[in-house]
């Protein structure tokens, strides 16, 4: 079953990428998140909305919910979440590479994986971030559901643009890709009604704005490292465990010799 | 098992592989769907448990949080 091979390949990539990501995040991002959280208790509660400090968000704010203790427990759950995130993205990258093979690509596994990962970075990080930049805890924002909806729209628009460029043969692929890229911005990203830091005093506001600006850059570098390492891991896994089986089964004269003919 | 069944994978192109190729494409689609499902759980699920466990990762990966 190629499905099982896909799962195992994605898991191998996920353990590697998720673990490296956890290390990078502990070093670069977690200090910013925790610094922002230290200001969260100073936030004036918005009128008519009882909001506990720190983690109790959303509809369940009045109940005490489990949350990991700061330190090892919180790092452990971030590690688990990072591996699941890397697993989900590796599955998409490997599946997309399989489709490329079916379509007759002659690219070698590693460059193909890096190209697909570049499309992943554009779709799952860069394009949504243009409308909804990275946020530190404590910022006010538009309603969660509408932001999540726009995020999906932006990611899907960028992914469809990449698919149009890769899959369509006609000259129409360029305007098609441009239209898909433009769609989320024609709709427009939901924005907070006022200043995202309105609930804080002047000193906290200044500190949080600095933290937020740093966080946007840090998350940009972290996302590049995530997709670069996902590309390398998926390229190696695809070459070793998936390409031989897929090339043999798709078995047309375009793909099978590509393994041997490549310089 | 006879010899012809082993030969189909090595000799014939096109039609003989159509069924296999379709099955493989379905499995690729299944893997992609599983990937999207896991992404939903990590990055979007509203359950407070999922949110609190993955909180920092949601912020770092620039998913709408809170």
UniProtKB/TrEMBL annotation, chain A:
The keyword Transmembrane helix applies. InterPro entries: CbtA_put. Keywords: Membrane, Transmembrane, Transmembrane helix. The chain crosses the membrane at residues 76-102, 109-128, 148-168, 175-194, 214-238. This is Cobalt transporter.
UniProtKB/TrEMBL annotation, chain B:
Pfam families: CbtB. The chain crosses the membrane at residues 24-45. Keywords: Membrane, Transmembrane, Transmembrane helix. This is Cobalt transporter.
